[in-house]
Amino acid sequence: MSGADASGASPAPAGRAAYRRLLDLRAGVHEVRAGALTVSSFASGVDGVLVIVVDGADPALLAATSVALDSQLRVLARTEQGDEQVLLLRMPSDVAPGHEPDLPAAEWDDAPGAALEGALVTRRIDAGHRVAWLVATETTYTAPGRAPVGDAASAADRARARIALAAAHGLDALRDRHEAEHRAAMDRVRIDLGDEPAGELATDARLRAAASAPEGALAHDPALAALVVEYGRYLLWSSARPGGLPPNLQGIWNAELRPPWSSNYTVNINTEMNHWASFTAALPETAAPLRDFVRALAERAVDATRRLYDAPGWTVHHNTDAWGFAAPAGRGGADPRWAAWPMGGAWLARHLWEPVAFGAASDAELAESWPAIRGAAEFALHWHHRDARGDWSTAPSTSPENAYLAADGAPAALDRASAMDLALLRDLFEIVVAAADRLGLVDDPVAVDAHDRLAVLPDAPAIDDEGRLREWSEARTEEDPHHRHVSHLYGLYPGAGAWDDAHRAAAAVTLERRGDESTGWSLAWKLALWARLGRGDKVGDLLELLLRPADDVTGEWAGGLYPNLLAAHPPFQIDGNLGAVAGVLEALVQSHDGCIELLPALPPALAHGSVRGVVARPGIEVDVDWAHGELVRATVRAHRGAAGVCIIRHRGIARSVRLRDGEAVRLEATAFGGAPFAPERTHVGSAASAPP
Fold it and tell me: For an engineered disulfide with 524, which of 320, 508, 579, 642 has Cβ 3.0 to 4.6 Å away?
């Protein structure tokens, strides 16, 4: 098995053909094989249909093969006519989260407009030795904050029309069209971290073998780390496309009517983590759903922000959803450690700036995001105030989702100002000032106030007497010293990371105190933080914990990977998979401080390898080769609009390179060892080397 596939094989019962399941990550095709029989399936982003093809069976068996449709949703009508089957469906009007046990799991309301409706349409196609089904779904949902349109019947008409267009291409062309689009995205990045062990193992068996190896999972099977990156890129590309919603806590892989945490958007880390790798992993299209969602959410949240706080601008709290929910969760009686956190707008605004930072957004596109960025800052300026003592405060402030011990020993969550609040404000105000400067809006009053307010915000959290970064406004004892959230390290990652040596050292002490063991997404965040600190040894430690069979891990907050490699919170959350991609790439290439840093945090067990196509700010494609833990060579090329002087750094030695569109500059390891610097230039063609 290679990084291009996640394969599975099971011993066959006596007298039956061997059974195998394979997922080709680069082609985006799933196959089930049993003897001569093959069932292949793919979800085409080009044509908007799921295609299932049965091939190689006896003709009589193929003729008798059928599908049955059913749903946990309310079935309004079920029809079958010729080769077509249709389910008309009605969604629940409300599904309460599991942490509200006194509310019904689902509420159904048949009144017009009280719930979304939708349709599932299939068409059977007989093609000689093959039989196939094309599947399409549609609903009345339109966009956050927008009213539903149509009904189940009109949704069925739209799904039926899409199937008709897809069927006109023919089965072979449908697959070719899907694979061409999917491969074009997947092939932008190639990663090789070493060979996998000899012999073919099913993915779950391979994971278990690596975890039980006495030399450690990475040393035994370094290619598993590459597979985590490849799989995460596949999951991101599959669940975040322009025109759709961004991936939620379970991505698009939730199969439950009442999913964990309602499959909502938790914006105090998880939603943002899902998109950390959008640009570095060369999948800029996947940032578009979050960008559009935040723009719509900003409009939707203005009224709620005014009602709640009598404040201008907008914000959201711990959770939001596909309808633009903006109020605190928990019906007014929730624990403030996870409900009272009005800083969601500040964090989400960073993801309107990231396309600019990576050279993937024009000034016109930034202008479309400006109202949302400005509105987030407008609220933040109001929320950041002087208290009765004359100190700047964000009270009532929390540090998601942590608590400290009050004087009486009881847990408390509220404070005058948390380190995360202040870090988010600094990040947001810097973004507002930079965006206003780029758009020629430096006299905008919000930009002016943001510029002035930066003078009173700390560059980094305070350092306590034990050498740790202080999470709250003063030294406090954590209720849980090993808490999974490390919110006070936001400024290091995913923030700008511009901390001095003293604060970087304090961040390391803080992470050591928290410990490595944690839930899946927290492992990914810690992995990225250690990468920013240049600690390849700790990146390796976190990868070892991530590459564990989740079923073997005990503890409420201890993660790993399930047999299908989906990450455990536990239970399953997609952010662990997607965050791990960002963390691993951050260990290989960094670009947050104006330089491109090569191999800043290479784990010792990944001493040999290469990566192709990682994207650095402000839109520089980077290839790196290394052996025996040492850089061999690197190649950098500018995407359109990113040409200019580029600083490349490795182990404290920096080299300046002038990049021009259509050229690649190759740097040998000697360039960073004091030898004369003589880069080799190769014409590569800017159109071919730059993702759209």
Answer: 579
